[in-house]
Structure formats: structure tokens, C-alpha cells
Amino acid sequence: MRAHPLATDAVLALGALICMVVGSFADPHGPHGPEFGTRTPEPSSLVLMVLGAATLVFRRVQPRAVLAVTGGLSLLELTTGEPRAPVAMCTVIALYTVAARTDRPTTWRVGLLTMTGLTGVAMLVGPLPWYAQENLGIFAWTGMAAAAGDAVRSRRAFVDAIRERAERAERTREEEARRRVAEERLRIARDLHDVVAHHIALVNVQAGVAAHVMDKRPDQAKEALAHVRDASRSALNELRATVGLLRQTGDPEAPTEPAPGLAVLDDLAASFRHAGLPVEVIVQLERAAQPLPSAVDLAAYRVIQEALTNVRKHAGPGARAEVSVVRVGASVEVTVLDDGGSGPDPSPDGDEGGDEGGGHGLLGMRERATALGGSCFAGPRYGGGYRVHAILPVA
Asked: Which residues contact 364 (CB under 8 A, 6 or more apart)?
């Protein structure tokens, strides 16, 4: 029916024609009540019924035009037909179509005009009294057609709204899933970069020290190798914890060690001191305040870790670093400074050309801060050295 609407309307028109022709042989005013076959419609009435049914074939193409034509045919039958044939059935179907395919104000206007026009002509013209049941029947049928069409239109609009809402919810759910997957992949990539860059840099430095003093000072070489072992163990633990996020159901249980935070900041600074980078740490957090959220605590730790790794890798010989973590109102400000040492002031992480740089290290720090609603600035200091400043909202 949906694929061939014109054919469907043709079948409906044929059914309406059969009903009108059959009904035109019935006499509701027989001596013993309604009788069938006691009267015969006039040829003009048969022509009007055929024209009205043929017009119904195009009821979906031009619903208002079809209503106007069928209404005119019904008025003609009411004024000339004797006995009257039920040509008004075409108008009832056409009025239902208009009500089902237009808005409610149009239905009210067109419906009232059709009901009053047909009923008024039927009451004023013809041998029957104005209160005859045939006249009132025209009013009832046209009114029911308008009401039924409006109800069908409202239900279709309701179903379409539900379907559109469901489709929009499905699209939103898929987009949200893709966004969450992308964010999680970025977060894991940042964690892996921070872990690898920090610990491998320390392993590289300590391994170089051990190779340099292996022959002349074996005790110092052993100490350097011990630091290499500790750094590699820490890297493995953090990598295992990060990769554990990718495990599927049924895989071996992932490690349960807590994520690093400011509580182990002294251990982080000590690892850099062992690598030959003097680090001074200042932490000023309100003791009475609530503990920092885990996301803020981890982000602050990672920013400091990445900044100190950059200092160790790119600052000149004899460089010194200062780390400060200060609670300012509803935010935590993390600052990492270095004096640049005695060498040139290269771009840390090989990717920082001022604040406009864009490598993985600085990009990861900025993404961490932005994800929490904060900001991160990194750039050269006046007089030499480098400065990393991150503002992380606590709320």
C-alpha cells in the first residue's frame, strides 16, 4: 500500500462507489421501516457517484482540490437528486484525508465549512423536514471524518517524534561512545609517554654513569646500576598498571597499585637527584582542605614528571630545577622552573619552541590540564632556562 498509493486509493474509490450505488437502492422511509430495492437512483445521481469516486483516486495528491470537487458534487446531488443518493460519502472520505494531512487549525476551518455547508443545504432544500435523520446524518458523518483525520494525524506525528527521538538518541550514544574511546586512548597514550620518557631517561643517564666509572670506581657503578634497576622496575609497574586498563573480561587480574600522585613527589625528586639533577620541591597545600581529587593529583604529578624529564634531557650541564605546588583558592598551581645550566636553552622534549610548540610531552601536559578545565603554559624564562606553569581546578 505504501509502495503503490495511487493503486490503493483506486481500490478505496471502487469500494466507496460500490457502497454508494448499493446504498442508493435503499429506502429509509418504507411502510415497515427501511427497505432495500424499493427505489432506483436517477441516472444523474449515478453519474455524480462515479465522478465522486473517480476524484477520490487523487485524494493524496491534491487533498483540498478533491474535497472541493466532492463537496460540489454532493451539493449538486442534495439540490437536484430525488431521491437523494449518498454522494456525500465521497466528501466524508475527502474531508478525512484533508484532516489527516494538514494541521489542526486548517482541519477546524475546512471541517466547519464542509459540515455547515452540506448540512445547511440538506436542511433547506428537499421535501424532507429540516430535522430529518438524513440531514443530521450528514452533519454527524462529516464531523466524525474531521475528528478521525485529526486523530490519525496526531498519532502519526507522535510516532514520528518518538522514532526521530530514538534515532537521535542512538546517534548520540554512538558519538558519545566514540568520544569516550578517543579520550581513553589519548589518556593511555599520555600515560605511556610520561612513563617511558621519564624512566627511560633516568635509565639512560644512570647507565652512562655506570659505564663511565665502571673501571675506576666500581662502588659508584654499582650504585648507578641499582638506580637503573629501580627506575626500570618502576617503569614496568606503571606500564603494567596502564596496560591493565586494556584487559578484557576473563584476563588475569590487573595490578591494583594506586596511581602515582603528589604523595610520592619526594620519591620522584629523589630519582632525579640520583640522576644528577638538583631539584628543590615546595608544596603548600592547606591541610584542613579536602584531599585533591585523584584526577587532579595524577595530573599534577604527571606535569611535574614530564617537566623534570625535559629539564634532565635538554637543559645544559649544571642545571637546577625548582618545583612548587601551591593551593590558590579553588585551583592548584604547579610550577617547574630551571635555570638552563651552562649550555644553550634548547626546546625541552625536542618539541617546545615556546608556547607554540606541539610535541607529545607538552601536548600531553596541555591535554591533561584542559581535560580538567585548567590550562598549562610552557616557555623560555627571561634570562635563560625554562618555565612550566599549570593551573588545575580542584572542583
From this structure: 189, 190, 193, 194, 302, 306
Torsion (CA) 226, 231, 233, 234 in degrees, nearest 10: 140
Mean pLDDT of 99-115: 89
Q: Cα dihedral sign for 161, 167, 173, 179?
A: negative
User: Cα 198 to the chain's mean position, in Å?
Assistant: 38
Cβ(102)–Cβ(56) below 8 Å: no
- Residue 281: its pLDDT value, please? 92
Mean pLDDT of the chain: 80
d(CA 243, CA 233): 15
The label of the residue with cell 606541539 reads 358
CA triple 223-224-229, angle to 5 deg: 95
Using DSSP's 3-state secondary structure scheme, residue 328 falls into: strand
Torsion angles phi and psi, residue 12, rounded to 5? -60, -40
Task: Determine contact, residues 145/92, Cβ cutoff 8 Å.
Answer: yes
Report which DSSP code applies to 192: H
- Dig out the grid coordinates for 143 from the structure: 464531523
Listed in order, strand segments (DSSP E) in the chain are 26-27, 35-36, 279-284, 321-328, 331-338, 375-380, 386-393
Q: Which residue's entry shows cell 510516532?
A: 159
Q: What angle do CA 102, 106, 64 make, to 5 degrees?
A: 65
